[in-house]
TrEMBL record:
Nucleotide-binding keyword on record: no
Residues modified to N6-(pyridoxal phosphate)lysine: 42
Protein name: 1-aminocyclopropane-1-carboxylate deaminase
Keywords: Pyridoxal phosphate
Family note: Belongs to the ACC deaminase/D-cysteine desulfhydrase family.
Organism lineage string: Bacteria, Pseudomonadati, Bacteroidota, Sphingobacteriia, Sphingobacteriales
Domain Tryptophan synthase beta chain-like PALP as annotated: residue spans: 18-283
Pfam families: PALP
Gene Ontology molecular-function annotations: D-cysteine desulfhydrase activity
Co-factor(s): pyridoxal 5'-phosphate
InterPro entries: ACCD_DCysDesulf, TrpB-like_PALP, TrpB-like_PALP_sf
Active-site residues (renumbered): 69 (nucleophile)
Amino acid sequence: MNIDLEIFSPIHQVTNPLFDVHGVKVYLKRDDLIHPMISGNKWRKLKYLLKAAQHQHKNHLVTFGGAYSNHLLATAAAAASFGFKATGIVRGEEVDNNTLFLCKLHGMQLQFTDRESYRDKPALFTKYFGADENAFFIDEGGSSAEGVQGCSELVDELTDTYDHIFCACGTGTTAAGIINGLTKHQYQTKFNAVPVFKNGGFIKDEIDKFLIPPVNYDLHIDYHFGGYGKATDELVIFVKQFVAATGIVIEPVYTGKMMYALYDLIGKGYFKPGSKILAIHSGGIWGLLGMKDRF
Ligand SMILES: *Cc1c(COP(=O)(O)O)cnc(C)c1O
């Protein structure tokens, strides 16, 4: 089977009186529209991993994630779409939630594991699937050179140039891919990474190890709102207002933090008047279902 999705990721302008005051234009690349389940950057990260699995004649994808992982769901849906079996090794005691329901709906087998064992993913893979010659290891979040390669293709799709690109960061794979893509096209665009967890400075090492050649970019580490999966009321209110004002759904775990950072920096006069800014909507809107009680 040919492993590919037709990419539908248009660029939509977002307007706000704040942008006029500061003389900036803001656009959103709608990677959330690529697929309802294999959403956004998760498809870009999986594409070459699935091709590698196919090339090695391995038809069983084994991957890792927390109980709310967008990557687990994307892998489950991609596996179902392209004829693979899938196992998700889930961090923590057995639970049930909307994300895991959707994983199971797509036929993914779930294997819960304690937090201590979860740290050593290759050991877990060997323990459970060492004897399965069809098993193919995919790291948590799809972090890999293949993932970086897939994410760099986002830049190939651009038909316009921008002064800044903004992107939420978990593993940094998406950021590294986009930066490599900008380098390849010799764009002068400044990349802005917004880590979604506390002490996000370490993400620099994760991004830099994939960069060919090394490049300078900006890291905005003060928009974690308490840490991964955490949100303040201020962030939740921002997300609600953004969705109601634009009709574009974002959520508090990734894209909400990234957009909050962008709006905050615009308000602080961070950008030169005349700047064109492209924010990446990296998908993941099902994350909202795990945070309903905050809204
Ligand atoms: C997984 C995810 C990210 C983080 O991507 P990395 O490549 O791990 O940095 C960003 N946004 C959304 C919506 C995600 O689901």
